[in-house]
Design a protein that fits this description.
The complex is a heterodimer of chains A (about 260) and B (about 375). By secondary structure, chain A is α/β, with parallel strands linked by helices. Chain A has nine helices and ten strands. The N and C termini of chain A lie far apart (about 45 Å). By secondary structure, chain B is of the alpha/beta class. Chain B has one domain: Alpha-Beta Barrel (TIM Barrel), CATH 3.20.20. Chain B has an eight-stranded parallel barrel with strand order 1-2-3-4-5-6-7-8, surrounded by five helices. Classes of the chains: A alpha/beta (about 260), B alpha/beta (about 375).
Chain lengths: ~260, ~375
């Protein structure tokens, strides 16, 4: 059985869904169910215990078979992210934490330094740390050494829909990593998610592309199929592109024939 | 007046913004609306973050011609005392509100820095997010305010045209154009997380003011790269004092301006208040605006005292209840979001929530 292993957790789905940006909680829940995702991320800032109608956590927690991965979106320093992670664990009971630290609230690019510091602390505290990072192969290895459960490099800027603009760096990260590499951010279409899986990513995290589509549950299903297809292709082994062609005039005739 | 800072001068890269704004723009309103909607959806999704203003005091020493709280108006003056602030907060929590903008007039003895800081402390214990729209302060004062739980400030230059500014601000501390202009930088230097800017539409040429506002935002974004920036679009409406705006801005002009800002600054939060009509607010939701005020009262004590009979700083055009407004958003497939912040992100000032002021909302 091919499954995604994160610590002692096993997931048959390799599609992780984000839960922000949806037009309603009902649509979001329908999309989560349609996606078959078993790991779903939700921002701590969207936990609202005082107002059930505004809360994203409780309705998600009530779906059977779902593991919740709170995220620290909104934190701009390691200290804030660490505090948010502890609150999230207390409220959700989940050991997973997606460390998301973007000090510039405009472009939301992750801060590699603060992310590394927070991840180191949280890994020591026993969290399943899933850091959202720039596609930097060295940072990815440093986070692996720090005890993270996975690394989540961005395909392109959050919400940009620019796809796998960082493919070259992702390829290095995947090649060198001993922990699961999950592409997070920038994916616009199921084919791009499939491509990430064909490259050897362990999973893909998608949010905007599903949330703002005309039919989020249908799009979630499409992503699930593409991720599954991409994974199968990766396991089967993809044919090499033909890159070796013989020159029309022989270059090695001077070597003569024979062995 | 001293010379204006260099960053307010025309810069490279603003020609498209200027073209979008121009009354004879080659871009139709429909074209801009479509582009603006696509960017908004991609970047912010189908959501609207909600906040509410809380007027702490209407004392003011300034003589701004357009303002219902100017010192020569015969409006009864009042400030909220600590117990009243707690009552207002409790009433606002009943509406589901967790993001508050505290307002005062310019600095007075009745509503000075320590009064405001105490109000911030009280509010930060009850709400997830507290920002202030008050008088310009020093870096040290802003630092102290941030330490009390304030996450940001809103400060409108009103108009960037120095000559009009001088005419409109007849007396009082608000006469100082340059001090006001540099206020957002002082707040960010002090560690505030967010700054909201705006011009009061109707006071001066809207295209010129929008351009200067755009330059101000760009300048702040480059200088204070961690800052959360927002632009509001307050438009002068009939108010206490009967002021007629010299440069009235139509709905179509305002919509064009909002679209142009969204396209030119795709990541900046754009804010629309209850000064605008229900139909305009409904229409603009999803087309560029990402943050709206809700169920606002612009009188001091307006949330826990119904029918005070006082006139507010400006008249509210959209007086729908929180529930009715949320339903209108939902009809447009937009989710109203009350809580989009977490105390943990307030840095060292985080003190947690005071459960004595909390209450469960039932309306939305």
């Amino acid at each position: 059985m091919d499954s995604l292993q994160l610590g002692s957790y096993t997931f048959s789905s390799r599609l992780i869904l984000g839960t922000g940006k949806f037009s309603s909680t009902t649509v979001m829940l329908d999309a989560v169910k349609a996606s078959g995702s078993q790991l779903v991320t939700v921002a701590l800032r969207r936990f609202n215990r005082e107002q059930p109608g505004d809360d994203l956590f409780s309705p998600l927690a009530s779906i059977p078979g779902i593991t919740l991965m709170p995220n620290t979106s909104g934190a701009s320093t390691a200290a804030e992210a660490v505090q948010a992670a502890r609150i999230a664990r207390e409220l959700s009971g989940s050991p997973f934490i997606k460390v998301e630290i973007h000090p510039n609230p405009q472009h939301l690019m992750p801060d590699p330094i603060e992310t590394y510091e927070a991840s180191k602390i949280l890994a020591k505290e026993g969290f399943m740390v899933m850091p959202y990072i720039p596609a930097d192969p060295v940072l990815a290895k440093r986070l692996e050494e720090a005890g993270c459960a996975s690394v989540m490099p961005l395909g392109s800027a959050i919400g940009s829909g620019q796809g796998l603009a960082t493919a070259e760096m992702l390829d290095i990260i995947i090649r060198e990593s001993t922990i699961p590499v999950i592409v997070d951010a920038g994916i616009r279409s199921p084919s791009e998610a499939g491509l990430a899986m064909e490259m050897g990513c362990a999973a893909v995290l998608v949010n905007s592309a599903v949330a703002v589509s005309g039919n989020p549950p249908l799009m979630a299903e499409a992503f699930a199929e593409a991720v599954g297809a991409g994974r199968k292709a990766f396991r089967a082994g993809i044919m090499e592109k033909s890159g070796i062609a013989a020159a029309t005039s022989p270059l090695t005739s001077f070597l003569g024939s024979g062995t | 007046m001293n010379t204006l800072p260099g960053w307010l001068e025309a810069g490279a890269g603003e020609s498209r913004f200027r073209t979008m704004l121009s009354p004879d723009s080659p871009y139709s309103l429909e074209q801009l609306a479509a582009a603006s909607r696509a960017i908004t959806m991609r970047r912010f999704g189908r959501t609207m973050t909600l906040y509410a203003p809380l007027y702490l005091s209407n004392h003011c020493p300034s003589g701004c011609t357009y303002c219902g709280f100017a010192s020569d108006r015969n409006t009864p003056r009042r400030r909220l005392e600590p117990g009243e602030i707690r009552k207002e907060l409790a009433a606002m929590k009943q509406l589901g509100i967790s993001d508050i903008l505290l307002l005062t007039g310019e600095r007075t003895k009745a509503a000075d820095f320590s009064y405001l800081r105490d109000a911030v402390e009280t509010t930060a214990k009850a709400m997830q997010r507290v920002s202030v729209e008050a008088f310009p302060m020093s870096v040290d004062e802003y630092r102290a305010l941030a330490g009390s739980g304030c996450t940001g400030i809103t400060i409108y230059q009103e108009t960037y045209n120095p000559l009009h500014y001088a005419e409109l601000h007849r007396w009082g501390p608000k006469k100082n154009y340059l001090e006001r202009l540099e206020t957002p930088s002082r707040a960010l230097e002090a560690g505030m997380k967010t700054v909201g800017l705006g011009v009061l539409l109707g006071l001066s040429d809207p295209v010129e003011d929008a351009l200067m506002l755009y330059r101000h935002i760009r300048h702040l974004g480059k200088t204070w790269w961690r800052a959360g920036l927002s632009v509001s679009f307050p438009r002068l409406r009939p108010q206490n004092g009967g002021y007629e705006p010299p440069f009235p801005v139509s709905d179509r002009q305002l919509a064009r301006m909002i679209f142009a800002f969204r396209i030119a600054l795709p990541d900046v939060e754009l804010v629309l208040s209850t000064r605008e009509s229900p139909s305009f607010r409904n229409g603009m939701a999803g087309l560029g605006i990402t943050r709206m005020s809700i169920a606002s009262r612009t009188t001091v004590g307006g949330y826990h005292e119904t029918e005070t009979g006082e006139k507010g700083q400006f008249e509210i055009f959209d007086d729908r209840s929180a529930g009715a407004f949320c339903n209108a958003l939902r009809e447009k497939n937009i989710e109203p979001v009350f809580k989009n912040w977490e105390h943990a992100y307030n840095g060292p000032s985080n003190t947690g929530i005071d459960q004595t002021i909390t209450s469960m909302n039932r309306e939305c």
